[in-house]
Amino acid sequence: MFKIDPTANRISPLEVKRFAELGFTERKHLQEWLENTPQALAQGEGEELLIIQKEFDGFDDTRERLDLLAIDKDGNLVIIENKLDDTGRDVVWQALKYAGYCANLSKSQVVDIYQRYLNQKAQEDGTEPGSAEENLVEFLEVDGLEAAQINRIKTQRLILVAAHYRKEVTNTVLWLSQFGIACQCFKITPYQAGEELFLNVEQIIPTPESSEFMIGMVAKEAEEKSADSEQKHRHTLRLAFWEQALDAFGKSGCSLYNNISPAKDHWLSAGSGLTGMPYQLIFGKNEIRVGLSMQNSEAAANRFVFERLEERKTEIEDAFGAELTWLPLPNKKACRIQYAKAVDGYDKANWPAMIEWLVEHMTRLETALHDPLKQVNQQLKQVSFGSEEVAGA
Question: What are the residue boundaries of the DUF4268 domain, all occurrences included (predicted)?
Fold first, then answer.
């Protein structure tokens, strides 16, 4: 790895170091880095990991602890084992044991494990703990936890992290991949240039995204079938609802959804003129909602637009005709402005009134935000937030 000096138009090599000589340890440093920056291990396109526990010791009849436990966007549990400068010979066996221990965790147990982690973090930081259920629903992008498929049969993943891999470790990982066991190896290398320290994280062994060991299969299969059935039912309902809703929008004065097709998701987005900041209709079991979601990849741009609109809150709400809910979501990348109504969403007899409500309130929201968004769009063209284009045409 080289450091670029644009002034001199030269590159200079960085010095490869060992963690031990830099004074870094596995638990105090590497584990903390990965816990707080799990995206370092999310190398695939669209891949995200959510850490739900560290130093997890909730295994019956054993005192063993796994370093980090995470969940991916598909609801698969991810066992992360860190070994700093050298893997040792037994890291694969150790990770497989932990995967076996975790394989029979039910959805409610996973939620409980994550909630204990959030409670502990809040106690350390002196803050109020977040809700594990709400965080998981948002992370997995599902309409309620009951629809989430978490820790399904044969989906546990292994991630090994080390600076050096012994041959017996890499050979075993490659052999396991032939049996559909998802195991990734990340090579971590510290570098130094003067007083500056750098860390390179490189995936050296990609494998399939499934694993093949399970405890409590009968109970897990029943849970999985129930979740599959529930999800298919919801997909069918949503498609039918959106077909009716889009038909109503097409006959209304709101043209936002004229070229939008029905989908299986619980939301339906339409362009607002700002990149990554769509208008959204929400159809849930207990709630319907209209809103503007500021979800551009540049968090600073989302915050900028939200704050500019919030400065005109009174004007916007007067035009809308009701108080809106303003959600800056300081601990997340996105921001939202929304207006909701409680409903019995899955009773089809309620759909005509629900759709009428959505059409009316999305029309009012678009009208209220039309001029403010147009002015914010002009302001965005004068501000740089990185490489992502934010302002619309």
Answer: 237-371
Report residue 5 as tokens. 């000096």
pLDDT of residue 386: 58
Q: 183-193 and 157-162 as β-strands: parallel, antiparallel, unpaired?
A: parallel
Distances from the Cα of 247 to the Cα of 241, 257, 277, 284, 359, angstroms = 10, 9, 24, 19, 11
Quick one: pLDDT at residue 212?
A: 34
Nearest 5°: CA angle at 247, between 144 and 280?
A: 40
> Of 378, 362, 281, 296, which is closest to residue 335 (Cα–Cα)?
296
Q: Coil, helix or strand for 217?
A: helix
User: In 3-state terms, what secondary structure has residue 379?
Assistant: helix
**pTM for the whole thing?**
0.57
Q: For the chain, first and last CA: distance in Å?
A: 40
pLDDT band for 213, please (50, 70, 90 cuts): very low
Which DSSP helix (H) or strand (E) runs through 93?
A: helix 91-102
Q: How many CB atoms lie within 10 A of CB 302?
A: 26
Please state which CATH number belongs to domain 232-380.
Answer: 3.30.1460
Delimit the domains of the chain by residue range: 2-105+151-215, 232-380
Residue spans of beta strands (DSSP E) within 209-273: 267-270
> For a pLDDT cut of 70, what percent of the chain falls above it?
89
Select the CATH number that applies to the domain covering 2-105+151-215 from these four: 3.30.530.20, 3.40.1350.10, 3.40.50.2300, 3.40.390.30.
Answer: 3.40.1350.10
The model's pLDDT over 75-96, given as tens digits with 9 standing for 90+, comes to 999 999 999 988 888 899 999 9
- The conformation of residue 219, written as its DSSP 8-state character, comes to H
